[in-house]
């Protein structure tokens, strides 16, 4: 019967835990995505800090998180929230971006 039982470890003392601290937790790596000019074709400009930009929709001016600065997520926003603007060309989004910037400067 003894060969089937797993022996218990004796409880550790405080001195042992001070010498051998528990392993540190793994930290999540934060990735700050950078804006690319091709994102304007999906209807997005950027706002905020140059090192940590946030994508901003030029149609509804909604600001997304930096983690959403991926072409697939930007395209999904355009297709789901603004389906009538999917067929628009790049010149339309440039005019909308410039208009938004002029309104912010006032």
Quickly describe the structure.
The chain is α+β, with helices and mostly antiparallel strands and 106 residues long.
Describe it for me?
The protein is α+β, with helices and mostly antiparallel strands. The chain has a domain at 32-105. It has three helices and two strands, in the order H-E-E-H-H. It has a two-stranded antiparallel ribbon with strand order 1-2. The longest helix has 16 residues, at 90-105. The chain is elongated, with a radius of gyration of 26 Å. The N and C termini lie far apart (84 Å). Residues 1-33 are annotated as: Disordered. This is BED-type domain-containing protein.
Low-pLDDT segments, ≥5 res? none
Percent of residues in β-strands: 5-15%
Strand order, largest beta sheet: 1-2
| Main sheet attributes: strand count, strand direction, barrel closure | 2 strands, antiparallel
Counting copies of identical and different chains, the oligomeric state is single chain
Structural class computed from helices and strand pairing: alpha+beta
Query: Overall 3D geometry?
Result: elongated
- The end-to-end span amounts to 84 Å
Amount of helix: 25-40%
SSE arrangement, N to C: HEEHH
* Mean pLDDT score: 86
Rg (CA only):
26 Å
Region (Disordered): 1-33
Protein name: BED-type domain-containing protein
Organism: Champsocephalus esox
Give structural attributes.
two-stranded antiparallel sheet, single chain, alpha+beta, 106 residues
């Amino acid at each position: 019967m003894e060969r089937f039982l797993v022996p218990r470890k004796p409880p550790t003392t405080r001195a042992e835990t001070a010498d051998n601290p528990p392993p540190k937790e793994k930290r999540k790596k934060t990735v700050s995505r950078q804006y690319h000019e091709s994102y304007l074709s999906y209807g997005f400009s950027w706002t905020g800090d140059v090192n940590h930009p946030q994508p901003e929709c030029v149609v509804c001016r909604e600001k997304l998180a930096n983690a959403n600065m991926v072409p697939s997520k930007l395209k999904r926003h355009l297709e789901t929230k603004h389906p009538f603007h999917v067929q628009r060309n790049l010149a339309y989004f440039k005019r909308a971006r410039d208009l938004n910037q002029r309104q912010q400067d006032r």
